[in-house]
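User: Hey, my collaborator sent me this sequence without any context and asked if I could get a structure. I don't really work with proteins. Can you help?
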Amino acid sequence: MADSQLIDSELLRFTTAGSVDDGKSTLIGRLLYDSKSIFQDQYEQIERISEKRGEEGVNLALLTDGLKSEREQGITIDVAYRYFATPKRKFIIADTPGHIQYTRNMVTGASSANVALILIDARNGVAEQTRRHAIIASLLQIPHVVVCINKMDLVDYDENIYNRIQDDFEKFAAKLDVIDVHFIPISALIGDNVVHRSTETPWYDGPTLMYYLENVHIASDHNFIDNRFPVQYVIRPYNDEYHDYRGYAGRVAGGVMKKGDEVMLLPSGFTTKIKMIQGPSGEQERAFPPESVTVLLDDDFDLSRGDMIVRANNKPEITQDVEIMLVWFDSDKPLQLKGKYTLMHTSQQVRCVVKEIRYKLDINSLHRLEEETDIHMNDVARVVLRTTKPLFVDAYRKNRITGSLILVDEGTNNTVGAGMII
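Assistant: No problem. I've predicted the 3D structure and written it out in structure-token form, which is a compact way to encode the shape of the chain:
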């Protein structure tokens, strides 16, 4: 049996995306309510707010629009994370804003997702924001995309409208790097095909959204081939009994690590063997993404935070010149050519300079704007960074952990950009 088949992938992370008022927050509210994942007092609270606002029925979107300013405006501003569980799986939802000025929030919420739910209003079809969010899902290499064609009740559950929107999206997605796309006709307000199958769509024979989320195969979303273990912390003995103990704690970023495996230590290049792997429940034979473990080695080498344990015949690229697709977050200052920033990659923190801005990406048409080098908030650009010391990197499409980085402003300590290594 392959190692990846041994993985029990019970936690699924998904993000929502789509245009404003496409019903993202209502859909999440419906998922939480119909799967009985909210408390009675939460339901009664949103019932009171809905009544006070003169709305018909209960506005389930209020379950996720947690900020007072969001409730007052009736929009989602920040990324709202929600946790719920069914007997089959645990879920973490990132409810992200649909407005164009909050693109950076969507990137933050979607960066670790297994599944992206892209909502489309059946009355409006594929909008500019739909395309924008599909491009971001492609940039972030989200493995599974579910296109929820919502508000089917407002178009009389018309199969032709559903088919037309599906065709439009598929034509556009053909230009993107999106591997697994699934379409579901829903009404988040009424609950059609969300948790319970709808009698209004006899022409649709696919799964409900909840069935899809509970059963989509995500074990192979992680990279189980290339061993990557960035060291986060060195554990030294806390009393004389363990005076020769030296453990390296971190999160497995790729591959399957086994006791007895021969490994290489970066940056030194020394080789040794894994003596022991310790997890939260004690000693274990193997470790795989995204487990956090402590690794003990046969030989006494001096490793520190930011170093990496890999296989000798399977190393990441070791480089000081990193080419990335960058999403710029800072609303105050644009990206500066020759500007200096702090760069954080896995457990390593280094300084860097912006060596080159290759082009800005038109997020709506995918055109490369090579003459435009002014990179402002929410812009996506291809840039080259030069770091003060080597990084151990993989392409983002190969490994989302060793292939991603963030930039921090040295003066304000604000996170100003997120990058996917090419």
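In plain terms: Residues 101 and 323 are 26 Å apart (CA to CA). You can pass these tokens on to your collaborator as they are.
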